[in-house]
Amino acid sequence: MTTRPYIVGNWKMHGTRAMLAEARAIDRAAERLLKVEVALAPPFTLIHATRKEANLIGIGAQDVHAAEGGAHTGDISAAMAKDAGAGFTIVGHSERRADHKESNALVQEKATAAIAAGMNVIVCVGETEEERDSGKAEAVVGRQLTGSLPTGEGVAEKVTVAYEPVWAIGTGRTPTVDDIGAMHRHIRAKLVSIYGEEGQGIRILYGGSVKPDNAAELLAADEVGGALVGGASLTAESFLGIIVAAAEAQDEKS
Ligand code: PEP
């Protein structure tokens, strides 16, 4: 399994075709930074066009429906996202868990459907501020992992986990490096208990207010294998600052 840091941009509900120039610039720069695996998850409407613009970086969806098809107005199946050019999908982002009342069981169904359609998945977990303040963060994240992760033969190699404390998303606040390391070690132990030895190879990304100026510090935390980036992935300039920091961190490790 690759040990390259994995830096994924989540464009959320941002972007029209005018933003394809950013994707193009990110892709061109990624060609010079091959120590880092780079990917973008644009909105569904831009997946196909972004795939056509970008030769090197991964392109993914931000969500898929759990069903293969049917009467689900406004939804997109994994096979449709894949057909549009997505090689992976994010599932269980806290904004979907909150806005669409997505349960762990539904997130697991979506992850399973995506893998069955031939995609990789980034499964998001993370505690709220109240849960952290009351000392429940590890228990909450542990339950999310047990309930949301897909299981079965050959599945572990398709999975990436993103730890995104809800209170750090889009707020400019981040946990301390020690707290990130502690949570990532907890997640690693859980992955090993779920997948056995294969759980050691699963990448765990940190997400929540990652910016060019804090990326090096956050990426150096224990067990952090990359970052899921929201706001700072919207322009090539700021996203590349994070990718360069990841490449430098990789140089220091080797
Ligand atoms: C996210 O929503 O996945 C995220 C990490 O957002 P931001 O980087 O803006 O905090």
What's the helix-strand series?
EHEHEHEHHEHHEHEHEH
Ligand kinds: phosphoenolpyruvate
The low-pLDDT segments are none
How do the strands of the widest beta sheet line up side by side?
Answer: 1-2-3-4-5-6-7-8
Query: What is the helical fraction, as a range of percent?
Result: 40-55%
Q: What is the mean pLDDT? A: 96
Shape: globular
CATH class, please? Answer: Alpha Beta
* Fraction in beta strands: 5-15%
C-alpha Rg, in Å?
17 Å
What name goes with the CATH superfamily?
Answer: Aldolase class I
What is the terminal separation in angstroms? Answer: 17 Å
Number of strands: 8
What does this protein structure show overall?
The protein has one domain: TIM Barrel (Alpha-Beta Barrel). Helix 3 links the parallel strand 3 and strand 4. By secondary structure, the chain is α/β, with parallel strands linked by helices. The structure holds phosphoenolpyruvate. Phosphoenolpyruvate binds next to strand 8. The site of phosphoenolpyruvate (PEP) has 13 residues, from strand 8.
